[in-house]
3-ketoacyl-ACP reductase (Staphylococcus saccharolyticus), 121 residues
Amino acid sequence: MIQQATEHFGQIDIVINNALVNFKFDPTQQKAFKDLTWEDYEQQLNGTLKGAFNVTQSVISQFIAQQSGCIISIGTNLYQNPVVPYHGIQLQKQDLSVSLVILQPNLVNSELQQMLFQVVY
């Protein structure tokens, strides 16, 4: 999929992970957690977490080579506020809904910085 997209568009700049497998947003079609089988759960694990892992791993080398790229994993609040029993996706999407922001400013020579340096060292 990544290779085909790269051939068609020239490069990939963004990946959005938002996969669900055979999921019906219909409460009458959802099983209660007590009725789930491991196969039901594993199908969602493979589609959601494994899918995001595989797509991200497939594109990461390209992002490194082009020195740019963005990976977004769509989360959900269904594990916190389920409107119907979506047990099959709740935990997997919870794992993907972590945001990471790293700020790495350069040190600035200031009174505060000098004071912190003296306290630490």
